[in-house]
Write a structure and sequence with these properties.
Elements: H1 3-22, H2 24-37, H3 45-57, E1 61-64, E2 73-79, E3 83-89, H4 118-139, E4 143-150, H5 158-164, E5 173-180, E6 188-189, E7 192-201, H6 217-231, E8 240-247, E9 258-267, H7 270-291, E10 294-304, H8 311-324, H9 331-341, E11 365-366, H10 373-377, E12 382-388, H11 399-405, H12 408-430, H13 432-446
Parallel strand pairs: 3-4, 3-5, 5-12, 6-11
Antiparallel strand pairs: 1-2, 2-4, 7-9, 7-10, 8-9
Amino acid sequence: MSTVLTDRLQSAKQDAIRIIDSDADAFSEVNRAIWRFAEPSLLEHKSAEQLARLLEENGFTVTRGVADMPTAFVAEWGTGRPIIGILAEYDSLPSLSQKAQPEREPIVPGGYGHGCGHSVFGTACTFAGIATKQAMARAGIAGRVRVYGCPAEELLVGKVYMARAGLFNDLDAAISWHPADKTQVSLGSGKAMVSVHYTFAGVASHASASPHRGRSALDAVELMNVAANYMREHVKEDARIHYVITDGGIQPNVVPPSASVWYYIRADRHEDVEAYLAWVDQIAKGAAMMTQTMLVERKIDTDCHELVPNRAIADALDRNLRLVGPPRFSDEEKEFATRIRATIPDAPEGPALNEDIAPLSTEPRRGAGSTDVGDVSWLVPTEQFRVTTQANGCPGHSWQITACTGTSIGEKGGMVAAKTLACTALELLADAGLRERAKKEFQERRGGVPYRLLIPSDQKPPIPGNAG
């Protein structure tokens, strides 16, 4: 970049940081509204509308209901190229309802809560998009910024169906973040995963008076699960196979005429997931044969890919994260986090809240979880980072995270994330050399492996309550 453009970019970054700082009260209001909504995956109607409306009020053109999902949207501002995407999430998790306090007390017993921090996640991405737009306009930086409203990350659905619809194909780069108990650009890669349901049909009968006339669909599910557990001995160490029985009959004296089981099949590479899925399919067919039942449905909800890391964008994120600086917490916030940690039996040694920036990894780090950000990373150069929004050592998907996310602890981390996203988006827009390095690395890491989805091309997203 020329000296003039470099100076203009640095000025735009400082402008974006000031914009986000000036919106701190609004940031808190939006986060706490979405935190209170605590909506399930694919049903995040209030949360999505809160963010979409805010973007619309700030000059973005918003397209709602994209990719056949009412709670998915794309918000765009600007013209021409380059086009930089910011990926927002806002769904919550079951059984993690919790008041914003360090003692366990659900708001709604058994209800949903933001135990993965997605209320502050979506809020930060939205404020980042707005700050990027305003700084672009003032500095005369060309291009477009998009904020993607991505539902159902907890089910690994939203971005998969958005990818299938081609919504990311014209991006030059995509960036995102995630709430965490530390601040770091992770340069990580999670596991590919397929979510698949198997349903068996048997014959009902009186379980005591006429068991010989019945054929138990539940027996098929149980034999399938036994075989899958034996299968574990013969898969690679990175594989993960887990399941829940979603329908196992109603009462013991009726031979169950129907039963269903839901599997997640994971591995570090999508091609291994494909092979394991074929094996589990064979197990399901065998279970039906052994029990003289019928395998009446095998339905894949979603099929997400492992992350393709991008060091060029990671370097930019790390550079801007250090420009912004880590979140700093008050004594009151640290006391809150200390009390949270007292509820975690295996909490690690260290501070109650991490206030430093961990070093950027020199090599990609393999994670045990999965994210549908991976599917975006198979289509365009993509990278993400994490920021401290919760007490050190909080278990993933826990009520402790829900509690922290609904307080200033989560919001201070989210503000750092928003500033880092905005500064990096501006840099990607202004620096053609950075975009070219990111693209070159993306092409090298992707290689010639095609992006292939296992879900049928005409299948609708699995929105609860919808038939089919």
